């Protein structure tokens, strides 16, 4: 049964109470800006952050949020001080983030990065909310389980990743058997035309300098390794119930075509736009209505050329690793995602070199058993075990770190 669908009542949306998980991040802050354009229509229940108390407090005041939550408890005193006299409630700690997601908002933006987003996203799903879904690691680490929860609680998942938003807009949910394949486009990242020798000495600054998108640090590094596209492949598999072998990846450096669906008759439908995350965020915020955004309009006469090339599996092994993890099934994608989070953080902390990321992910994925994941505890255990294994691999890579000395 397909649980995702783009069919919705023809009427537009009226007032919609919103919660933004990860409001201080790249996706979160862009969501705040869109919500702030129409505060009457989008009153705010809760905003959450990890540590960025100053921005969180500013956002909460600007949007007149009912609740502001900081996941790191050491930030609570400062948050209370900054919001004193405003009437805005405050809370702190990971459980408070979950409770924020459980409060009655019609629409929840899931924009926490990584595994930390799992339980808050689940809390929103279990209320049957409309969940705008940016936090792809959640579907990668617990895809089958999450989709079962969506089904059981009648929640609505609206993809926010530009690729999945594109597919969502052109996918025939009434006739899924007519879909031949999904084609995910990829910019190719900052190292698209670089060789392995260059990548071996690539710095943090070079890896996060994405050519077309302005994003958080983790997803920027994932784009440089192409792991981001691998995670998106797994996300697409769960969201659209399409097997891995019918999901292709196409490098398209201009990031104008956001993804495509090929049908059995040979028709290919695509969604296009300038590379601006406010467009897919607004699509989810207004769904099923469309909201006006300040995003630059697409002018194909100025775009001049659109180019395409296949991804290079030798320079970018991440796609092979993600396909292998999806084929292996069970906890393999959970292990892959957890090891990748540990390795990317170690690279951002300048403890390992860029190419060590793939070595650590492959090492952990090969070393650990891919057990079936029957429940949330099994997901947590697989994640924790993979983090321990990946962390143990970091010191041995230390000698190849760039910019650490
Ligand atoms: N950025 C994009 O354009 C884009 C596009 C498509 C999909 N995505 C996906 O969207 C998600 C967010 O990406 P992003 O680029 O917006 O990331 P980001 O800029 O790093 O922001 C992450 C957000 O999560 C919060 N956070 C981090 N660790 C947390 C924890 N342990 N507990 C609670 N909150 C925590 C951060 O709070 P602090 O600010 O306090 O650290 C911040 O609000 C990722 O899964 C990414 O793959 C992003």
TrEMBL record:
InterPro entries reported for this sequence: DXP_reductoisomerase (IPR003821), DXP_reductoisomerase_C (IPR013644), DXP_reductoisomerase_N (IPR013512), DXPR_C (IPR026877), DXPR_C_sf (IPR036169), NAD(P)-bd_dom_sf (IPR036291)
Gene3D superfamilies xrefs: 1.10.1740.10, NAD(P)-binding Rossmann-like Domain (3.40.50.720)
Pathway listed: Isoprenoid biosynthesis; isopentenyl diphosphate biosynthesis via DXP pathway; isopentenyl diphosphate from 1-deoxy-D-xylulose 5-phosphate: step 1/6
EC number: 1.1.1.267
Membrane-spanning residues: none
Pfam family, one: DXPR_C
Catalytic reaction list: 2-C-methyl-D-erythritol 4-phosphate + NADP(+) = 1-deoxy-D-xylulose 5-phosphate + NADPH + H(+)
Ranges for domain 1-deoxy-D-xylulose 5-phosphate reductoisomerase C-terminal: 157-240
UniProt binding sites for Mn(2+): 161, 163, 232
Co-factor(s): Mg(2+); Mn(2+)
MF terms in GO: 1-deoxy-D-xylulose-5-phosphate reductoisomerase activity; isomerase activity; manganese ion binding; NADPH binding
Domain DXP reductoisomerase C-terminal as annotated: residue spans: 272-388
Keyword Isomerase recorded: yes
Residues that coordinate or bind NADPH: 24-27, 51-52, 135, 137, 216
PANTHER family: 1-DEOXY-D-XYLULOSE 5-PHOSPHATE REDUCTOISOMERASE, 1-DEOXY-D-XYLULOSE 5-PHOSPHATE REDUCTOISOMERASE, CHLOROPLASTIC
NCBIfam families assigned: Dxr (TIGR00243), PRK12464.1 (NF009114)
Function: Catalyzes the NADPH-dependent rearrangement and reduction of 1-deoxy-D-xylulose-5-phosphate (DXP) to 2-C-methyl-D-erythritol 4-phosphate (MEP).
UniProt family annotation: Belongs to the DXR family.
Protein name: 1-deoxy-D-xylulose 5-phosphate reductoisomerase
Species of origin: Azospirillum cavernae
